[in-house]
Automatic annotation (TrEMBL):
Record's keyword annotation contains Oxidoreductase: no
Localization terms from the record: Cytoplasm
Keywords assigned by UniProt, alphabetized: Glycosidase, Hydrolase
Chief location of this protein within or outside the cell: cytoplasm
UniProt-recorded name of the protein: Glucohydrolase
GO cellular component term, pick one: cytoplasm
PANTHER family xref list: ALPHA-AMYLASE FAMILY MEMBER, NEUTRAL AND BASIC AMINO ACID TRANSPORT PROTEIN RBAT
Family: Belongs to the glycosyl hydrolase 13 family.
Gene Ontology process terms (BP): oligosaccharide catabolic process
Molecular function terms from GO: alpha-amylase activity
Length: 544
């Protein structure tokens, strides 16, 4: 058993402020809007809010391009509103963690504005500049948003590196002065009373562009240990790194407490099982449940003793899970609850992305004009130019575009889903007339109350928090079943991942007490030797 930490028992709720709630009718969600919905979040029972970026930004990548780390974007409010949010959350026992985007800044950040001026500018070395090679890009590194990772600057006849859009130049972590400026900034937010950081693409900061190394560069962990010592090391904060390229082996480097780096990382291996291996996520493939079981179990086993898992299906970059691996048509409620049960039954800290708790679905945009995201727009141009079939491109966006997660939160069946009095910055999903918070709160069988119950369970059930994980029937193609074991206590989690009925048999030799802790059907079977699982049926049993 790990040394116990407050965030072991916590459930975290991610807010994408632009799409959460608009308090002043300009069509853009804002901080005041979050404050107005804190009672709703308290009712859900979550402990921590992860706030996607609210800093000053030209919004090329919706705030992941920061031009001033010390200032709130005026569309979202003021620093005064931010202070108020911290205060009002605290009153409700809710902590706030902030997004830390320090792999890159906006090209409007004063550091970059300065750096561009000349080769000998004091800020030049805060970014990564290289001479042309034979009049071309220094090498073949690619941007994650399409095209080369190098952008030519005519003024100084050099290229700068950007792993995202060209308006997001990568910071040069080799520069000690730059690192110190980041520590100062982090300490400013820590002193303000935030409870931690979600660290954007943190596995990229050790990059070695001359050797084509993006992720997991050799100095990455030195930088993180340096960060720990200079910022949050003396505070009891929550730190979670976003690491697309992490393996079970190096996850321990980040999250083994002895190493003094981070508390946990987001691993994305399970979220990449429905793409063609080695290709981009636009190259679609059907999910095989057996593979999902393999991958999630591998992570559960690997971090059982050292490190800690983060558990998630959704965030602002991923399509809606109920549309992706559930069934957003006739079994939307059942499948959303099944996916929630499957995830929240595991060992780790669960994350909920806004709208997941009411089973919001993909955006269902069919026209390229409806997509706002810079990634989608860039990939569209790139793939069209490369001769891909347009229908195929649009199909992959329909399944995987980031805007699927970014449509405005559906609060009620009022105009614009009750999100705003004015025209929302992004189209509302037309299904808001039936899928919305108001309806969810009026229905004791709603997905919302299922999440509420799962969150509550975690607060009181030590087996759920600390029990070791054990996969059952690894080869079964339609049932995901596993145990959680702590001393003489056991939980059995059984989930039917599909819409056909399926029998599940659990061998018990001696007489045991069996209690159903939660289920998505009102009359689930309690004879665990033989359970007939209905479509998407999911049950957590406690066996003692
Ligand atoms: O995302 C990192 C990232 O590489 C993926 O999200 C990628 O954009 C895509 O979704 C998967 O191929 C983080 C943020 O979460 C994202 O919103 C930002 O756009 C990105 O970093 C740059 O800051
Ligand atoms: Ca607003």
């Amino acid at each position: 058993e790990n040394q116990q930490k407050w965030w072991h028992k916590n459930v975290i709720y991610q807010i994408y402020p632009r799409s959460f709630y608009d308090s002043n009718g300009d069509g853009i969600g804002d901080i005041e809007g979050i404050i107005l919905k804190l009672d709703y979040l308290e009712k859900l029972g979550i402990d921590v809010i992860w706030l996607s970026p609210v800093y000053e930004s030209p919004n090329v990548d919706n705030g992941y391009d920061i031009s001033d780390y010390y200032c709130i974007l005026s569309e979202f409010g003021t620093m005064q509103n931010m202070n108020e949010l911290l205060l009002e959350s605290e009153k409700r026992g809710i902590k706030i963690i902030m997004d830390l985007v320090v792999n890159h800044t906006s090209d409007q950040h004063p550091w970059f504005v300065e750096a561009k001026k000349s080769k000998d500018n004091p800020n030049r070395d805060y970014y990564i500049w290289r001479d042309p090679v034979n009049g071309q890009e220094p090498n073949e590194l690619k941007s994650n948003f399409g095209g080369s990772a190098w952008e030519y600057d005519e003024n100084t006849n050099q290229y700068y590196l950007h792993f995202y859009s060209k308006q997001q130049p990568d910071l040069n972590w080799e520069n000690a002065e730059m690192r110190n400026s980041i520590w100062d900034m982090m300490n400013f937010w820590i002193d303000k009373g935030i409870s931690g950081f979600r660290m954007d693409v943190i596995d990229l900061i050790g990059k070695d562009p001359d050797h084509l190394i993006k992720e997991n560069g050799s100095k990455l962990h030195d930088y993180l240990q340096d960060m720990y010592r200079n910022t949050f090391g003396n505070h009891d904060l929550l730190t979670v790194g976003e690491t697309w390229g992490v393996t079970t082996e190096n996850a321990k480097l980040y999250s083994d407490p002895k190493r003094k780096e981070l508390n946990m990382v987001f691993q994305f291996e399970h979220m990449q099982l429905d793409k063609v291996p080695g290709k981009q996520r636009w190259d679609l493939r059907k999910l095989e449940l057996v593979e999902l079981k393999n991958v999630l179990s591998k992570w559960q086993y690997a971090l059982d003793q050292e490190g800690w898992n983060s558990l998630f299906w959704n965030n602002h970059d991923l399509p809606r899970i109920v549309s992706r691996w559930g069934n957003d048509r006739e079994y939307r409620v059942e499948s959303a609850k099944m996916l929630a049960t499957l995830l929240h039954g595991m060992k780790g800290t669960p994350y909920i992305y806004q709208g997941e708790e009411i089973g919001m679905t993909n955006a269902a945009f069919t026209s390229i004009e409806d997509y706002i995201d810079i990634e989608t727009q860039n990939i569209y141009k790139e793939r069209m130019a490369a001769g891909f079939n347009e229908e195929e491109i649009m199909k992959s966006f329909y399944m995987k575009a980031r805007d699927n997660a970014r449509t405005p939160m559906q609060w009620s069946d009022d105009k614009h889903a009750g999100f705003s009095e004015g025209k929302p910055w992004m189209k509302v999903n037309p299904n808001y007339t039936s899928i919305n918070v108001e309806n969810a709160l009026n229905d004791s069988n709603s997905i919302f109350f299922h999440y509420q119950q799962l969150i509550k369970l975690r607060k009181h059930n030590n087996t759920l928090v600390y029990g070791s994980y054990k996969l059952l029937d690894s080869e079964d193609k339609s049932i995901y079943a596993y145990e959680r074991i702590l001393k003489n206590k056991k939980l059995l989690i059984v989930c039917n991942f599909y819409e056909h009925e399926k029998e599940f048999c659990y061998p018990i030799t001696h007489h045991s007490e069996v209690e159903i802790l939660i289920s998505n059907y009102i009359d689930s079977g309690s004879d665990i030797k033989n359970i007939k699982l209905r479509p998407y049926e999911a049950i957590i049993y406690e066996i003692s």
